[in-house]
UniProtKB/TrEMBL annotation:
Pfam families, sorted: MFS_1
Recorded GO MF terms: transmembrane transporter activity
Protein name per UniProt: MFS transporter
SUPFAM superfamilies given in the database record: MFS general substrate transporter (SSF103473)
Source organism: Metallosphaera tengchongensis
Keywords: Membrane, Transmembrane, Transmembrane helix
Residue stretches spanning the membrane: 12-32, 38-59, 132-153, 159-181, 193-213, 225-246, 258-276, 282-300, 312-330, 342-364
Classification via Gene3D superfamilies: MFS general substrate transporter like domains
Coiled coil: none
Upper classification of the organism: Archaea, Thermoproteota, Thermoprotei, Sulfolobales, Sulfolobaceae
Cross-referenced InterPro entries: MFS, MFS_trans_sf
């Protein structure tokens, strides 16, 4: 792969090195610092993805119209709004800062994926997307490590989170230094395949929910905040490491997607009998969720890049939009079901992930 792939991938690394610390902190801030009920957290997360899906599609569409690099840099710079979450004096301020930055993160993601398509040939894109995801989540893993260490040392959020703006700005610099081609042009998109992948991705979004729910689950089970945020580290680390493995393997897109969806279904179901085993039983399940994410984040955009024709940005926007719809539905349902029982929530997620696998299976047979 050429150096431009690594510039984009390291941009993802530094972005996650910053904002993923905020993502891991957010459920702790709302539920344990400002004492909001869990279902409110679920609604906020649903709103973030529900409105965020509009920004995702808009970012993809505008990247085809004005150029992916310009849109990606603009959105990435505004992701720094997330860093102000730690300075919030009440729950409304925290929600406002978080949502503003998260919407910009959604806005730039399809454009960044389009940049990756523009600097690669079709045969190397699977490896390129796996490398992007691996370095992306590696940055997130390091973010969770320094966050959990800081919480263990009893440092307050208002000292930790504002510093996350620094790696996000470095991330924008890497995007600026990347040399990409002109606006995409080419053949007509294959809408049937795009629609099938988008539907499967939407259901996968429903099934994967927000990482905040496993964070809350482990925090409840262990009564230790830093063990809760460390949950996210296991998720990101497993996903990063497995994506790097995928970058070295030759796996068909449909096989990779079905495998990822099935692993996620099994992991979600495992939360039901293993809740009482505390972190010893829950961390391996979080690792499995990370592996499922690595499959999806590698093969979903790779498949879309092959069938989007001259509208790669729009195709990536549709993919992000469909995942956003899934997150919107999933987090709302998870929040409500979790209020009654964690078993209902994770059982629902498992069944929906299984449905995603069946959609890809029947699409290929068709």
């Amino acid at each position: 792969m050429n150096s431009e792939v690594y510039k984009i991938s390291f941009s993802a690394f530094f972005a996650d090195l910053g904002y993923q610390a905020v993502v891991a902190s957010f459920p702790i801030i709302l539920v344990f610092q400002f004492h909001l009920p869990i279902y409110i957290y679920g609604i906020v997360e649903s709103f973030s993805y529900g409105v965020g899906l509009i920004f995702s599609f808009l970012g993809g569409y505008l990247s085809d119209k004005y150029g992916s690099k310009r849109i990606a840099i603009f959105g990435n710079l505004l992701v720094t709004l997330l860093s102000f979450t730690g300075l919030a004096q009440n729950s409304l301020e925290a929600i406002g800062f978080f949502l503003s930055g998260w919407f910009m993160r959604n806005f730039r993601s399809p454009a960044r994926r389009t940049m990756l398509v523009q600097v690669t040939q079709e045969g190397e894109r699977g490896r390129a997307f796996a490398t992007l995801h691996s370095l992306d989540f590696l940055g997130g893993l390091i973010a969770v490590v320094y966050l959990s260490t800081s919480l263990y040392l009893h440092l307050p959020f208002y000292l930790i989170l504002p510093m996350t703006a620094i790696p996000i700005l470095i991330s924008s610099l890497f995007l600026f230094l990347t040399k990409v081609g002109d606006k995409t042009s080419g053949s007509k998109p294959k809408t049937r395949v795009i629609g099938s992948v988008a539907l499967a991705s939407m259901l996968f979004g429903i099934s994967t929910y927000s990482p905040g729910f496993p964070i809350i689950t482990v925090t409840q089970s262990t009564a230790q905040t830093y063990l809760g945020t460390l949950t996210y580290g296991f998720y990101l680390g497993a996903s990063s490491g497995f994506a790097m493995l995928l970058s070295r393997l030759n796996v068909k897109d449909n096989v990779g997607l079905i495998s990822g969806y099935l692993v996620t279904a099994v992991a979600s179901a495992g939360f039901i009998p293993l809740f009482s085993f505390r972190e010893v039983g829950l961390y391996p399940l979080v690792v499995m969720l990370g592996i499922g994410s690595a499959f999806a984040e590698t093969f979903e955009p790779n498949m879309i890049s092959k069938v989007s024709g001259g509208k790669v940005g729009t195709g990536m926007g549709v993919l992000s939009l469909s995942r956003g719809v899934g997150y919107f539905i999933g987090n709302t349902v998870m929040g409500v079901l979790y209020t009654f029982s964690y078993a209902y929530a994770y059982g629902f997620a498992s069944l929906v992930a299984l449905t995603s696998a069946l959609i890809i299976y029947f699409m290929v047979r068709g």
